[in-house]
Design a protein that fits this description.
383 residues, alpha/beta, eight-stranded mixed β-sheet, 15 helices, 8 strands, 13% strand, Methyltransf_25, Methyltransferase domain-containing protein, Methyltransf_Superfamily, SAM-dependent_MTases_sf
């Protein structure tokens, strides 16, 4: 994708970086996840317990489900139609995108996440050199992926989106765990509960099956991929994404991180049709991807995951929970801003993900709230 000016120039000249908030001068570095949740009272309240199989469905750690099947600002409700009408008015939509972006940045920096500093650091680096080695120029992007996402007109196919992905992920963790004292604590809870749910499911339903190969579909800049590699250090881990810009950032950061016995492999491909060999993975993880996909893509990706997993293999999905009390009770301003940056949010909330997994052939399907906003759903390929 040709650029007439440098990504850094575009970033610094954009009026959108005028969001309020004091940026820290030093980027917070995400630490490797600890397997054991710390012993403070608050942390114990949030941690997923090592539950027996029959207790792994539902909410845990005091996370509340709402009284609705899904938020009333999604689907075909009057409120949802009203918000959709607002968003469809282009002048207002432009203002909503601007507002959403300012909220993203200012909220993060108020939580001591140096959003602009981290973004600038990536854009001033030599990350651009990674693109040529990772981009698959023959890849045809699905039509839905060319939509604007997260207030970026070019969606995920831009250096700015890639540079901002890590601070955005850190901000997501702080929103999910609002009582956390730091990003590290929020990640230890949010990511810790997610990774423990995967481990618990695989141990329970895959018998003595070793975890040798892991695929992270929709890996973005590799945050979730890194957690999986840390949890399963003897496994060969692959991160796959549709955005070569995200993958370039992932590869750049991985090369400058702590060396791994098995370096993470990064692949530019479509999660609906990866081109990877059948029955070649023990775990397929899909984190915070489906809310950005139309139903047809969700169905295709789940079917592809089934093809890729070995018998006894585990599929792990984590994303916004339609039953989350926190999400159901979002203020009108916040859910309007959210929907203005997520074109397929309604389709996601109306998709029965568990039933889609069942139709694909998965068994032992379990869902639980692993933090107040997100649900992790795990399932097994029959042996």
């Amino acid at each position: 994708m040709a650029l007439t000016t440098s990504p850094l120039q575009n970033y610094l000249s954009s009026s959108l970086i005028s969001a309020t908030g004091n940026a820290s001068t030093t980027a917070n570095k995400p630490t490797r996840i600890s397997i054991v949740i710390t012993s403070t009272v608050r942390m114990r309240q949030w941690a997923v317990q090592a539950a027996a199989p029959e207790t792994t469905t539902g909410s845990v750690g005091g996370f509340e489900e709402g009284v609705l099947v899904r938020p009333n600002w999604t689907g075909e409700t009057p409120l949802s139609r009203f918000v959709a009408a607002l968003i469809s008015f282009k002048p207002l939509y432009s203002l909503l995108k601007l507002g959403a972006r300012q909220v993203f940045i200012s909220t993060a920096e108020k939580k001591n996440i140096p959003w602009r500093e981290m973004t600038k650091e990536v854009l001033e680096s030599e990350v651009y050199k990674e693109l040529e080695s990772i981009q698959n120029n023959s890849l045809v992007y699905p039509d839905y992926y060319l939509n604007p996402f997260h207030a970026y007109d070019e969606g995920n196919l831009t250096w700015l989106a890639a540079a901002e992905a890590e601070p955005a992920t850190m901000s997501m963790a702080m929103r999910a765990i609002p009582d956390a004292s730091s990003v590290d604590e929020a990640n230890e809870i949010m990511r810790g509960n997610w990774i423990r749910a995967i481990e618990q499911h695989h141990i329970t339903y895959s018998g003595a099956s070793m975890v040798c190969d892991i695929l992270d579909i929709g890996c973005s800049v590799g945050v979730s991929t890194g957690y999986l590699a840390d949890k399963f250090p003897t496994a060969k881990v692959t991160g796959l994404d549709l955005s070569p810009y995200f993958l370039a950032v992932a590869q750049y950061k991985a090369k400058r991180g702590v060396p791994r016995k098995f370096p993470i492999r990064w692949i530019h491909a479509n999660g609906e049709d990866t081109g990877l060999p059948a029955k070649s993975f023990d775990i397929v993880s899909i984190s915070y991807v489906f809310h950005e996909c139309p139903t047809r893509a969700i169905v295709n990706i789940i079917n592809e995951a089934f093809r890729l997993l070995r018998p006894g293999g585990t599929l792990a999905l984590t994303d916004n929970s339609p039953k989350s009390k926190k999400l159901q009770e979002l203020s009108p301003v916040l859910f309007t801003l959210m929907k203005s940056t997520e074109p397929f949010l309604d389709e996601y909330y109306l998709t029965d993900v568990e039933e889609t997994m069942r139709k694909a052939g998965f068994v032992n399907i379990k869902s639980l709230l692993t933090d107040p906003r997100h649900m992790t759903t795990t399932a097994t390929v029959p042996q």
